[in-house]
């Protein structure tokens, strides 16, 4: 789920405002067929506040105000295309909307907390969604795994106004569509994904959490890929069942995209340090995500490094790692040799450490044929890595790391360990 129109930034208490969202798939394409002709998604929304002034996260529930939502009610003469469906969410359309109002818990005293607030929009209930998956199941076609799961969205900051409610804002019509607001109205465009320790996919955000800003316009590195969501669940299992793989270890998130996995390691585990790597031109997004979650930098050293696969000099700046997490890095066969070289440069081998390193790769089949895949794994073996596909080895000591989502999504989890 993504934001379709910005939100009004300065809101009065007890007034209704409109929020407009839309559904996209993993590669950002608008999802329409999945919900037509009669699919329905009911949304929920809650109010979050940063726990401290220095960092966006951890975000926690706002205990001083209530947020209520309802289906969109305002119908302007011009905006006939806007859905007023009687549903706070989506009805038979990938474009959805709802209205929200914020009310202080202790109304008369105006004791609500000052400062920025964030709306967390999440999926509460779905009906006949996704249609495509149902059709594919009937036709015995493999459906896209995460189609039935809608990643929640956090939007903000918004600011509560102390003034008399709604007397001047847009002539008092606060739930009008965004086009109806004066052009000078301050708007919020920023959205984030929020992940917490207890259950990433349920979005339980009451513990420490990580906020990730995606930059869809930046292309491949700018978003969180399905494989990263699966590896995040693998990481949770690692923390629970194999903490010694991480505790006190140098963990490296290879070609991290948004930095989600590296930041989550710093949040959930006690590594000695975390290195997050990307192509030089793609590290700005990771650095800004580190800043959003700057409370994590007090937990362990967190370094963002430029790394082009195969570049030994850049790899030596990163240093050898005990645990390498590589999500969705196999998608261009011309870089196979360079990628394997980076594994060699970065992974502690039997000579360099008493405990040789481990590499975990999340791989989602897309364009490669069997021959190309085989070429990559053969290269790894030629460079003295033992390879285990964990999804296929239920008796392996690491089989407990494979989350159900891996099977559902078709993401394969491979472990590489140096054989010499
Ligand atoms: C599909 S994205 C995966 C991003 C992230 N790991 C995730 O799963 O969300 C692949 C990443 O590999 C990086 N990449 C592509 N070619 C690379 C190269 N030759 N050297 C280093 N990184 C590269 C891209 O910048 C991109 O962020």
Task: Explain the overall architecture.
It comes from Absidia repens. With 420 residues, the protein is of the alpha+beta class. It folds into two domains: 208 residues, no CATH class; 201 residues, Vaccinia Virus protein VP39 (Rossmann fold, 3-Layer(aba) Sandwich). The protein contains eight helices and 21 strands. Strands 3, 5, 6, 8, 10, 11, 13 and 14 form an eight-stranded mixed beta sheet that branches. Helix 2 packs parallel to helix 3 and helix 5 packs parallel to helix 6. It is elongated, with a radius of gyration of 23 Å. The protein starts with a strand and ends with a strand. About 3% of the residues have low confidence. The structure holds S-adenosylmethionine (SAM). The site of S-adenosylmethionine (SAM) has 21 residues, from helix 2. S-adenosylmethionine binds next to helix 2.
Query: Average pLDDT value?
Result: 88
Tell me the number of helical segments per DSSP (H or I, 4 or more residues long).
8
Distinct compounds present: S-adenosylmethionine
Structural class: alpha+beta
Organism: Absidia repens
Keywords: Methyltransferase, Transferase
GO molecular function, one term: methyltransferase activity
Protein name: Putative methyltransferase-domain-containing protein
Helix/strand layout:
Elements (H helix, E strand, L loop, with lengths): L1 E2 L3 E2 L1 E3 L4 E6 L17 E11 L8 E3 L3 E6 L18 E3 L3 E10 L12 E11 L3 H8 L14 E9 L25 E2 L2 E6 L12 E4 L13 H16 L8 E5 L5 H9 L4 E6 L4 H10 L9 E5 L5 H7 L4 E5 L8 H11 L11 E7 L5 H13 L2 E5 L14 H6 L1 E8 L2
Parallel strand pairs: 3-11, 15-16, 15-18, 16-17, 18-19
Antiparallel strand pairs: 1-4, 2-12, 4-9, 5-6, 5-8, 5-10, 7-9, 10-11, 11-13, 13-14, 19-21, 20-21
Helix pairs in contact: 2-3, 5-6
The structure holds S-adenosylmethionine.
GO molecular function: methyltransferase activity
Organism: Absidia repens
Protein name: Putative methyltransferase-domain-containing protein
